[in-house]
Specification:
heterodimer, A: alpha/beta, Rossmann fold, Alpha-Beta Plaits, 2 domains, 4-stranded antiparallel beta sheet, 10 helices, B: mainly alpha, two-stranded antiparallel sheet, 11 helices, 5% strand
């Protein structure tokens, strides 16, 4: 796949002393969802602004669609939802989208159609005549997404797109983003919500104190450690023998019920063999894997 | 694209609190002028005026002229004061606008945003002044039984508009540097109402005073020169052009500072 966003050794130093980014290199391919994770102040928003050419890097290069960002070839092909999306309070919902659509060279009927389409997509069409000041936080966020999508961008930059939303709102946004991905839109998002990212992202990057500490696909970043949880129950009188057979494994016992944690396929087969020998009932076999949150915390702690 | 920004912010400024206050003052003035004052014309010249509740007519054209000049300049100062306060928000609002990034990624340049929003502001305020002076002229026209179309209010409008544009060029520059609308409006008011009249009177006294005069007093000087022009006094074209030029330099520097600002 063609790479559409590239940052090469990007460094940003504010006021000559505050290093917000330190030689960050990332690459995002066409049609993928890339999520940038990091603690507050890690440099996520700064990197996004540099990619959008809103802030200049102190050193390093940025390429969008294969061309240096300064050439501006990306103009009109990018949608952006900033972390704090605000518009004048007295503007109406459709007025916001129409105004920003017009700035993306949409005119006349085409503009009207796109405004209607995106407002329907984000479930705001019925609210189109409402003043912005009367919108809830979730509605405001959806309005932000509508303006980012109105000109049918090829790349979408979203800074905390589900922050502060209720579960239903998050689900709607998630569905929308997956739908956009299926249409070939490349999505670059900054997020704190790791559970969301785990579902959405093809690749992630973890930024800490301005440094990219790891980047890759979820399976690369979250290696399977092949641990399994096996739950067994045994007939009365056999529990002592079973316990001694399982002694080399990590297990816990609650009366006739056993929970065994094994590492690797061979150990799993061995435990299942023991269970057969004792005519045990196997109640559960489940792979154990770390959540993205566990991985994120372990990387951050590893660096600290 | 610039047109859309211009149109949007023109509409936004029309609803600005300061413009609404100006409109309220103007409506009161127009009502008093239309219903409370009678005018007397002889051969197309305004020679007398009286209040409708006063029996005494003033038949003295010199008095009438100086009275009208006094009232119009008072009004001029009040309105310019309100305009300065209203217009001082422009650069600060521009720099803190969360829509800025969203507009920039659509390919509109920072210079384009600055210029179109500035023009939206200028048009909103000058349109307000234009409508006011046109209504003034129309009331005079009506009161003269449609015989006299007095251009005085329109001359005052041009003078007003020029003064406002020049002072706005200056305070937008201060606003870009200070990022504070209070500082830029205070600076504008101080420059126009206090420093400029002083420098105007002392511009030939020392080199320093004359440098300051050219750096700070553009709006005041432009207003003075234009007033001289419409009253048939000494119009110094060089002075007029230099001050307009200085204001444009302020504007260009303001744009370049804004252009280099990072988000």
């Amino acid at each position: 796949m063609e790479s559409v966003i590239q940052a090469v050794e990007v460094t940003k130093i504010y006021q000559g002393k505050i290093k917000a980014l330190d030689k960050v290199t990332i690459e995002v391919k066409q049609g993928e969802i890339f999520a940038l994770l990091g603690l507050n102040g890690a440099g996520k928003t700064t990197l996004m602004k540099i990619l959008l050419s809103l802030t200049r890097p102190t050193s390093g290069s940025v390429y969008i669609f294969g061309a240096p960002v300064s050439e501006g070839r990306w103009k009109g092909k990018i949608g952006y939802l900033p972390e704090l999306f605000r518009v004048p309070d007295d503007w109406r919902v459709d007025e916001v989208v129409k105004f920003l659509g017009a700035l993306s060279d949409l005119k006349g009927e085409k503009l009207k159609e796109r405004v209607k389409f995106v407002l329907e997509t984000v479930d705001l069409y019925e609210e189109r005549k409402r003043k912005v000041k009367t919108l809830s936080k979730g509605m405001m966020l959806r309005l932000g997404l509508a303006q980012a999508l109105v000109h049918n961008p090829e790349i979408l930059f979203l800074d905390e797109p589900t922050e502060g939303l209720d579960p239903m709102g998050r689900m709607k946004i998630r569905k929308l983003l997956l739908d956009l991905k299926s249409k070939g839109v490349t999505i670059f998002l900054n997020s704190h919500l790791l559970s969301e990212v785990e579902i959405l992202a093809d690749r992630i990057g973890i930024l800490h104190n301005g440094k990219l500490i790891i980047s890759g696909t979820l399976s690369e970043v979250m290696p399977r450690d092949e641990k399994y949880k096996v739950e067994l129950s045994v007939e009365s009188g056999k529990e002592e023998s079973l316990r001694s057979s399982l002694s080399k494994f990590n297990f816990s016992q609650d009366g006739l019920n056993f929970v065994v944690i094994v590492e690797g396929m061979n150990a799993l087969n061995e435990v299942l063999g023991i269970a057969r020998n004792f005519s045990s009932e196997v109640k559960l076999i489940a792979p154990l894997r770390n959540t993205l949150e566990d991985v994120f915390i372990s990387y951050i702690k590893g660096v600290q | 694209m610039m047109w859309n920004i211009f149109a949007k912010y023109f509409q936004k400024h029309l609803k600005n609190q300061m413009i609404l206050i100006c409109i309220a003052i103007e409506i009161v003035v127009l009502i008093i002028f239309a219903l409370g004052i009678e005018l007397e014309f002889i051969d197309g010249n305004l020679v007398g005026m009286s209040g409708v509740f006063s029996k005494k007519m003033i038949y003295d054209s010199v008095f009438v002229k100086s009275f009208v000049d006094f009232v119009s300049s008072m009004l001029f100062y009040v309105l310019i004061f309100l305009y300065i306060v209203g217009g001082a928000e422009f650069p600060v609002n521009l720099m803190t606008d969360s829509l800025l990034g969203i507009i920039l990624v659509r390919g509109v340049t920072r210079r384009g945003i600055y210029i179109s929003r500035f023009l939206g502001l200028i048009l909103a305020y000058t349109l307000n002044a234009f409508v006011f002076s046109l209504l003034f002229s129309f009331i005079i026209f009506y009161k003269s039984d449609f015989k006299v179309f007095n251009l005085g209010p329109l001359y005052i409008f041009i003078s007003f508009a020029l003064t406002f544009i020049v002072i706005e060029l200056f305070i937008s520059f201060i606003g870009v540097l200070s990022k504070n609308s209070l500082v830029s409006s205070a600076f504008g008011i101080l420059a126009y109402f206090v420093i400029s009249p002083f420098l105007y009177g002392n511009k030939n006294v020392s080199l320093l005073a004359s440098i300051f005069y050219y750096v700070v007093s553009s709006a005041y000087a432009v207003n003075k020169e234009f007033t001289n022009l419409i009253h048939g006094g000494d119009f110094n074209l060089f002075n007029f052009i230099v001050h307009i030029f200085v204001s444009i330099v302020y504007f260009v520097i303001g744009i370049e500072v804004f252009n280099r600002k990072e988000m």
